[in-house]
Every structure is written in C-alpha cells, then in structure tokens.
Write a structure and sequence with these properties.
Layout (H helix, E strand, L loop, with lengths): L7 E6 L3 H6 L1 H10 L4 E6 L15 E4 L5 H13 L4 E4 L4 H9 L4 E4 L13 E2 L9 H10 L16 H13 L8 E5 L11 H14 L3 E4 L6 H10 L13 H9 L3 E5 L2 H8 L4 E5 L4 H4 L7 E4 L25 H11 L2
Parallel strand pairs: 1-2, 1-4, 2-3, 4-5, 5-6, 7-8, 7-9, 9-10, 10-11
Helix pairs in contact: 2-5, 6-9, 7-8, 7-12
Length: 339
C-alpha cells in the first residue's frame, strides 16, 4: 500500500487463548512491514499471557468487561492513544465498536455475517473463515494493508521466571527430568469437543507401562472434575499440574514435553507454537481450519456433519464424533511419536 507508513498500530483480538495465539503471525508480519511503528495488541483478560513478550509488540492492552461507564472510559483512553491503523481480527460487534471509537483513520476488519458493523471499518477483509486455516485467515487482514509473503508461524515467548517456576512444579509433581514427558490436556471449552476421560486414563497407563515416558495431566479449574475421574480410572501413577499453573507456567511445562496429546483447545496451539509435537483430537471443528500449525503434528478427525445437533446438545450417543476416535489409533500415534 502506497503512502505514509503508520506510526501507531493496534491489533484487536477479543477471543480465547488459542485464537489469540493463532493471531500472532499478524504481529510478525506487521513488524516486518512497518519496522518503525509502535505496535500494540488489545485482548481479553486471561489471554494476555500468550502475547506478552512477543518481540514484535511494544504494548499489550487488556479490555475489562464492566458497566457502561467503565467501557466508555476505556474507549476514551483508547482514542487518546491516537492509533493510525487498527486491525480488528475478532469479527464481532464489540470489537468493531472499539475499532470505530479509536478514531483511527484506517480501520481494517472482518464482517463474515454481513452485519451493521461493516460500516464501522474503512476496509473489509475478504476472507472465508471456514475455508482456510486461521493463521491464513488472520493474515488476510495484513494483505489489505499491502503486506504479503510466506506466513510467519505463531509465536509464544516464555519468560525466564515461568521456566524456573515450571521446573519447581515438575519436580513437585514427581517428574524425572531424565525421562521423556508426555503432556495430556483432557479439557475443552465445550464438553462435546472432549475425548472421553476414561480413554485419556487408559492412554496414560499405556504410556507409563509400554514406554519409558511419564504422563502428566494439565488443565485449569475447568478440568478439575475430569482430572479427578481420570485419576480414579488409572492403574499407574497419576501425575498432575491441573489448577497449578498460570498461562506462562503452562507454556513452560509444555516446552519440556516430548509430546502433547489433547483436544482442540488453547494448550494444543501453545504446544505447537513451542515446536512440541502434537496429537490433536478433533470433533466438530475441522483441523484444516483449527489444527496445530507446523510440521510434525498428527490430528484425528472423523468429519461428521454436526449441524443437526450442535451446541449445547449432541444426540449421536456412541456415534459422537469424539467417541469415534479410538484408544488404539491414538495410542499407535503416540507410540510412533515418542523417541
């Protein structure tokens, strides 16, 4: 794009951990295209841990949800920062409103649903969010600014403090640093994207009886109940850091792993960004769109049409897309992936 390069750029991604991480290639491309610009990113609370420390960023902003007065005050503060360009990767009404309220003369965003928010942007990105990987989908916004080239990979920077904390946590969990580590994350944002807990338990048992590796379960508060059930079903030692790590510490633990096995969720994308081989278990979401980015990963996906019984219910019973992924096929992939 010809013209005066922007001095201040804001990227907005108000989604979940995995979504934010898959948007980081945009930061790399913007930094390459506009090396002297001040580059900031606006995210939801709880997701900033995956972008703090990114070498392309000068600032990370977190928008809190709250009463209208608080929201208006934040919008005024955003406008006072005088961004030249705002790139909204979220495709939502709320982010579109913040983009417009920023007062930036160049406002780039998506409008896949053809809603009123399209009038709040100066440029609409032409991209099919179901027809390409999310990394490529996000990068379409930079093409609207005249920036092209090979897609940069997602990037996750782990702080030295988090790495030190992870070392202590792994020791407390009984992990032998001289043996391979397999991380397992049984959670997902919605239940119907989760592989059955008893299969995670059986998989961990096989890892710990048929290989030299150790199995370690990860997760947050949402995985507390599932972890308890998995522990009760296992015949080998249950090792867990569920509810014991923040986002940066979780990344630091994943960085120590020889392999990560998990559902379609943020930690899966964190592992892939850290160049840890991933075995991803997919149900209603297509790994061609949401799969781990990079080489050396394996995904399982049965490709069922879930439109008839999507969230919050699934009526397929044993034909549920996650239950169709067998223990044996996942175990075979794990066995081949381990050194």
């Amino acid at each position: 794009m010809a013209g005066v390069p922007p001095e201040r750029i804001l990227v907005i991604k108000l989604r979940y951990v995995g979504d934010v991480l898959l948007a980081t290639p945009v930061l790399s491309r913007l930094r390459e295209g506009f090396p002297k610009a001040h580059l900031a990113m606006l995210v939801n609370p709880g997701t900033d841990g995956v972008v703090r420390g990114h070498p392309a960023l000068d600032d990370v902003l977190v928008v809190e949800r709250g009463n209208p007065a608080r929201q208006w005050r934040f919008a005024r503060e955003l406008r006072a920062r005088r961004y030249d360009h705002v790139v909204d990767l979220t495709d939502s009404d709320r982010s579109a409103a913040l983009t417009w309220l920023s007062g930036a003369p160049v406002r780039v965003g998506y409008n896949s649903e053809g809603r009123w928010r399209g009038c709040l942007y100066t440029r609409i990105v032409d991209a099919d969010r179901f027809g390409m990987h999310q990394v490529c989908y996000h990068l379409k916004a930079t093409e609207a600014l005249g920036l092209t080239g090979p897609p940069p990979p997602p990037m996750l920077v782990i702080s030295p403090e988090a790495r030190a904390a992870a070392g202590r946590l792994l020791e407390e969990a009984g992990i032998d640093a001289s043996r391979p580590l397999v991380c397992l994350h049984p959670g997902a944002r919605w239940w119907f994207k989760s592989w059955p807990g008893e299969r995670f338990a059986a998989l961990a048992d096989r890892v710990q009886t048929e290989t030299s590796a150790q199995a370690l379960f990860l997760g947050g508060e949402q995985e507390r109940v599932a972890a308890g059930r998995i522990a009760g079903a296992m015949k080998t030692p249950f090792r867990s850091l569920v509810r014991r790590t923040d986002l940066q510490e979780l990344g630091a633990v994943l960085a120590r792993a020889a392999l990560h096995v998990g559902n379609d969720n943020g930690p899966m994308h964190m592992a892939a960004a850290l160049r840890v081989p991933v075995i991803g278990l997919f149900g209603p979401s297509d790994p061609a769109v949401w799969g781990p980015w990079g080489d050396g990963h394996r995904t399982f996906y049965k490709g069922l049409d879930c439109r008839a019984c999507f969230h919050p219910d699934c009526f397929r019973g044993e034909q549920n897309c996650m239950k169709l992924i067998t223990l044996d096929e996942v175990w075979e992939a794990v066995r081949k992936a381990l050194p």
